[in-house]
Amino acid sequence: MELKFVLESILFSAQQAMTSRQLREILVTAAEQSEDSTIKAFKKTPVDNIEAALEELGREHEQAQRSYRLTCVAGAWQFISQPDYAPWLKALVGHKSRPPRLSQPGLETLAIIAYRQPITRTEIEQVRGVSVDGVMQTLLERGLIEATGRAEVVGRPMNYGTTNAFLEYFGLKNLDDLPEAEELRRMPVEKPATLLTVDPGLATAPPELLAQAESPQSVDPALAEQIGLPIVAEDAPKEPNS
Amino acid sequence: MELKFVLESILFSAQQAMTSRQLREILVTAAEQSEDSTIKAFKKTPVDNIEAALEELGREHEQAQRSYRLTCVAGAWQFISQPDYAPWLKALVGHKSRPPRLSQPGLETLAIIAYRQPITRTEIEQVRGVSVDGVMQTLLERGLIEATGRAEVVGRPMNYGTTNAFLEYFGLKNLDDLPEAEELRRMPVEKPATLLTVDPGLATAPPELLAQAESPQSVDPALAEQIGLPIVAEDAPKEPNS
Amino acid sequence: MTDYKVKFEVFEGPLDLLLYLIKKEEVDIYEVNLTKLATQFIEYIEVMRMLDLDIAGEFLVMASALMYIKSRELLPVDQQVAVEGDDEGEDPRWELIRQLVEYKKFKDAAGRLHELEVNQENVYPRVPVPPDFSADQALADSGLSVFDLINAVNAILKRVAQQPEQRDIFEDQWTVSDKIESLVKLIAERPRLKFSELFAAASSRTEVIVTFLAILELIRLRQLTAVQDEPFGEIEITRAAPQTEPEPAPANTATPPAGEPAPAS
To answer: What is the ipTM of this complex?
Structure first.
């Protein structure tokens, strides 16, 4: 019976991280409860030997390259799974996964709304050159944008703007705090008297609209990054995670 | 990301043994909650692949010869400790609560049912040579056996078979995992080519002596001991095989 | 006294008794002298009767069967053949041996099941605590995002970069786990620290990064909490609520006597 395997078996079944001293207590308890000389032999194991065995175990499990490791944090040893497998473990424990991070169209649309609010759906579509119905729906559901009133144009369409949740989501103090705000605000979106300025046959916005802006294509990922929009979304605003 | 390691990580963190179907559900749930293509890729993993990966994992952990291994009991996979380390785990988590061990008649009856199922009560009694009423009752109450239908013979008696609880109690993967399964299942005892010729001897006790059940007064147990009978003192036993 | 009785506990039935007798003779079941066996069996039944034991009906049935076999053995061989007939299944000797062989197999199987039963008592399934993803929320709970922290670290890195190149030799002296340990000690002494203070002594880019990773790990493990009293104010690090600390107090109650010999490991 090798000390390291005895320790391994204890740590593998333990409900919490254990220090070498706690492990030693288990060795002592087992020795006292048993008549077996093999088990009694571990009673007087010095803490130093336990620590050396733990280090060796840690290295072995590191080298084994499995889905879990034996780690030591602040002197306490514990088997933990590798972070790569978190998505499945969340599914296992029924952890309500956070809403998935915003999609690229979502981020672009949000950026347009943030910098040009209040803005109508049609105006957003002018910039993006594509329909934004689905994306708007998602942003509304996640509480990042809201209807702010009606635009004083033909048909009186809804105006949209960002919410406080939006500020929280991106850790912003206020809208002025948006990075490079000046530049983006200059991006022209005409407030047309007539609603149809986009050629319905075109899949993308007329180039001249965008050419005037500093950004080449609508809002590309690089820009989103530049303005500090996190690529990985943190938690959803409205839903305090359980 | 290898399937087997994903499965391993789930089993490593699971609170109970899991079947390949349950594991598959976790893969599906994780895929639905994620936007990551790596995670989504496991959504349609066939159960067959999962089972093959589990078998491989089981072999790997067997070969690793550590203090624990991955087992499959009644179709559900779980990490368990090697029995050698029980003294320390006892010290760590205390005694396991387990139903009392089965009696000898219980084990014999269970063995007959396990290897010969489906089997009727009469067939069991033919093998054991004694009544099994009390024993069957106990086994049924403990959920180790169950009625599986009726035999297509005169009187249509009940057939009995073992349950999943039986596999779990003995730590068996399935019925093929029973010790010497092939030999004991449905194998008729072969009659040898020649039976040994038995020398005629003298009868010591005429049959009529046995037929009349006339017993003398109770006899000193020392007499029984003298002729090598194992004896147990007890008050008024009704059922010798309970 | 009628309530005092002696009971055969060990024999499960007549077959069990026969196996016992065969074992005593140290012969194979197929080679057993059935006449002798019958004699011994009946002797046992006699003793049981003398002891006023409850003799189960099965024992008496078996005794009769043995008597029958024995009586047939007494007949001349030519008459035996006539009695046996053509159907070998009806040979009572074979029938008994078949039964004994079969019963023996299951008795042995029962023994193996018992071994498995005992083995299972010593098997402990791993029952881990469920993975706790609420720890991921530690940051969110504090109203901070990881970006706030990165931002703060960035500022510190810039400051370090502005310092003249110095002590590059010591670049690699820190590991994350070293830092974790020193932070745990520090936070034990001073429950509330300014984020920037933790980096005050940092002399290299590596050390800043290592310190930062250590803080993140401790926050994840719920050892530390990051708080910010006002938006964009100074971030402070405090000890987390104690209930989830992985190292409970009893750890210190172990008293390892020094200098004791180690067991062979």
So the answer is: 0.60
- Answer yes or no: do B234 and C5 touch at CB < 8 A: yes
Query: Which has the closest alpha carbon to B155: B123, B108, B192?
Result: B123
- Write the residue in A30, A64, A101 that is nearest to B87 by C-beta: A30
- List the 55-114 stretch of B: residues with Cβ below 8 A of C: 68, 78-86, 89, 93, 96, 98, 101-102, 104-105, 107-108, 110-112, 114
**Please, is C255 exposed, middle or buried when counting C-beta atoms within 10 Å of its C-beta (0-12, 13-18, 19+)?**
exposed
Contacts of C223 in chain A (CB under 8 A): 74
Query: Residues A18-68: pLDDT tens digits?
Result: 999 999 999 999 999 999 999 999 999 999 999 999 999 999 999 999 999
Positive/negative CA dihedral, B166, B169, B174, B176:
negative
How many other CB atoms sit within 10 Å of the CB of residue C76?
9
Does residue C216 or residue A71 have the better pLDDT?
A71
Total Cβ atoms within 10 A of residue A12: 23
| Closest chain A C-alpha to B165 CA, distance in angstroms | 23
Subunits with at least 3 CB pairs below 8 A relative to chain A?
B, C
Band of residue B98 on the pLDDT scale cut at 50, 70, 90: confident
Which residue of A6, A88, A101 is in closest CB contact with B88? A6
DSSP string for residues in A158-200 = EEEEE-HHHHHHTT-SSGGGSTTHHHHHTS-----SSS--S-T
* CA C101/CA C19 separation, integer angstroms: 9
DSSP tag of A2: -
Query: Residue B145 — very low, low, confident or very high, per pLDDT cuts 50/70/90?
Result: very high
CB contact under 8 A, A81 and B12: yes
Strands C192-194 and C4-7: unpaired
- Inter-chain contact A91–B35, Cβ cutoff 8 Å? no
- Angstrom CA distances, C138 to B13, C225, C230, C233, stand at 21, 7, 18, 19
C-chain CB neighbours of A22 within 8 Å are 250-251, 254
Q: How are strands ordered across the β-sheet holding B119-120?
A: B119-120, B158-162, B145-150
Instruction: Judge contact between A160 and A121, C-beta under 8 A.
Output: yes
**For A169-198, how does the pLDDT look when each residue is reduced to its tens digit (9 = 90+)?**
666 667 776 665 554 555 554 444 433 333
Average pLDDT value for residue range C87-113: 82
Cβ-defined contact of C116 to B196 (cutoff 8 Å): no
- Chain B residues close to C114, C-beta within 8 Å: 101-102, 107
Band the pLDDT of C162: cuts 50, 70, 90.
low
Does the beta carbon of A233 lie under 8 angstroms from any beta carbon of chain C? no
A2:C265 CB<8 A: yes
pLDDT in tens, B155-188: 899 999 999 999 999 999 999 899 887 777 765 5
Which residues of A, range 82-141, sit inside 8 Å of B by Cβ? 82, 84-85, 87-93, 97, 100-101, 103
Selected residue with higher pLDDT from C109 and B210: C109
Touching subunits for chain B (3+ Cβ pairs under 8 A): A, C
Q: Show the 3-state SS of chain B.
A: CCHHHHHHHHHHHCCCCEEHHHHHHHHHHHHHHCCCHHHHCCCCCCHHHHHHHHHHHHHHHHHHCCCEEEEEECCEEEEEECHHHHHHHHHHHCCCCCCCCCCHHHHHHHHHHHHHCCEEHHHHHHHHCCCCHHHHHHHHHCCCEEEEEECCCCCCCEEEEECHHHHHHHCCCCHHHCCCHHHHCCCCCCCCCCCCCCCCCCCCCCHHHHHCCCCCCCCCHHHHHHCCCCCEEEECCCCCCC
Mean pLDDT of chain A: 74
Nearest CA in chain C to A49: C262
